[in-house]
Amino acid sequence: MASLHTAKALEQKPAHSRVLRERVHAFIADREDLPINIYGTWNESLLDKNEDLAQEIHMHLQATGKYVKAMDLVDFLDTPEMRKWSGITNRISLATAQRWMKKLEYRWTKDPKGQFVDGHERDDVVAYRQEVFLPAWAAIKEKTRNWSCHNIETDRDYP
Predict the structure, then answer these.
(1) Residue 41, domain member (yes or no)
(2) pLDDT by residue (tens digit) across 89-109?
(3) How does pLDDT run across 46-67, given as a tens digit for each residue?
(4) Between the CA of residue 121 and those of 26, 42, 136, what are the distances in Å?
(5) Which residue, 45, 54, 93, 151, shows the most beta carbons closer than 10 Å to its own?
């Protein structure tokens, strides 16, 4: 009766109660005998099966330059030479190319805009810092308060 109630709770037909009883008896006989979920085991990527293909894709994307797109991968695999070599007959989708690039550890980033990058050693920046900023800071330093890392006001100068 318990297996019938369980089958009903699982929204299965009464015949499923027999499967549940068989699994319970098998588990009682051997505590290591658990059912295995095969979901997803058939989804092995072509890149996992063919390491040479992954290597070819790496070589092509590295030769493409600094800015690589998933569409570059789609176009590369759509060439007649690659179709013949890889055995891929249809054009791969953009989503597949994006998944493959992620699997190959390529990451998407945006270039920072409006930021001053790596200019702290330029001559004009160094001159401004030495001749304008630091003297102005020293002039107002006497009028500012000094605080410790524990938010306690001190008389000592901390860098």
Answers:
(1) no
(2) 899 999 999 999 999 988 877
(3) 888 888 999 999 999 889 887 8
(4) 73, 55, 20
(5) 54
pLDDT > 80? residue 112 = no
40 occurs within a structural domain: no
Separation of alpha carbons 15 and 27, rounded Å: 19
Place of tokens 């007649």: 80
What is the total count of domains within the chain? 3
Burial 49-82 (b: 16+ CB within 10 A, else e): eeeebbebbeebbeeeeeebbbebbbebbeeeeb
Structural domain includes residue 78: yes
Residues 6+ apart with CB under 8 A from 7: 13, 14, 15, 16, 17, 20
Residue 25 lies in domain = 1-35
d(CA 48, CA 52): 10
Q: Which residue type occupies 75?
A: D
